[in-house]
Amino acid sequence: MRLRHLEMTLQKLSGFPSPKPALEQYATPAEVAARLLFHAAGEGAIEGQRVLDLGCGTGILACGARLLDAAMVAGIDCDRGALRVARENARSLDIEVALIRGEVGPAFPVRTDSFDTVVMNPPFGAQQRHADRPFIDCAIAAAPVVYGIFNAGSRPFVERYIEGRAGITAAIGGTFTIPRTFAFHRRERMDIPVEILKIERESPC
C-alpha cells in the first residue's frame, strides 16, 4: 500500500463521538498517522510484526498497522466509548484488531516484550503535566522499538527521561492539526508542530 492510499483510507475512519478534554482525546490526523506507520514499515517494524497501539483511542494507528500487514495488532485504551468506535473502524475495513480496556500506568495489562513494535500518540500534557511519561514507560517495556508522536521540541526531555533505558534513533517533523473540539478552544483549528520519535530500548527491562 502506498503512503497516499494509506492516508486516504485512514481519513475515512470515525473519530471520537464525545471527546474528553481530561484525556486529551484529539483525533490523530490521518496524514501524521500514515507518515508514522509508513516510516515504521519501511524499517521493517510493521509487516509480520506484533504491534501495539498504546492509548489507541479510535484505533487509527492500530487499523493502519493491520493494513500494512502486521502479523497481529492490539490496541489499549481506558475509554469504553473510544474502543467501541475503534471496533467499528476495524470492522469497516474488514480487518482484525484486538482491543483491550486498560490503564497506561502501574496497572498496565501487558507483559514485558509482549510486542515487537509500539505505535502511539500519547497525551501532550496540556491538561496534566508529564502525562506522556507513563506512556513512554509502558511503551519501552512492551516492545524494543517505539514510534510516538510528541510536541516539537520534546526530544531533549524525552532523551533525558529515557537515558539509560533507551535512546532516540530517528525524528521526523510534521504538523498535528486540531479542529475546534472543546468549549475552551478559541480558534477553528490549530496547527501544532510535532515530531515522530523512534525510540529503541538499549537493554532488556
From TrEMBL:
Pfam entry (one): MTS
Gene Ontology annotations of biological process type: methylation
SUPFAM superfamilies: S-adenosyl-L-methionine-dependent methyltransferases
Molecular function GO terms recorded: nucleic acid binding; S-adenosylmethionine-dependent methyltransferase activity
Residues in Methyltransferase small domain copies: 37-130
Record keywords, A-Z: Methyltransferase, Transferase
Coiled-coil positions: none
PANTHER family named among the record's database cross-references: RRNA N6-ADENOSINE-METHYLTRANSFERASE METTL5
Family statement: Belongs to the methyltransferase superfamily. PrmA family.
The protein's name in its UniProt record: Methyltransferase-like protein 5
Species this chain originates from: Methanofollis liminatans DSM 4140
Lineage: Archaea, Methanobacteriati, Methanobacteriota, Stenosarchaea group, Methanomicrobia
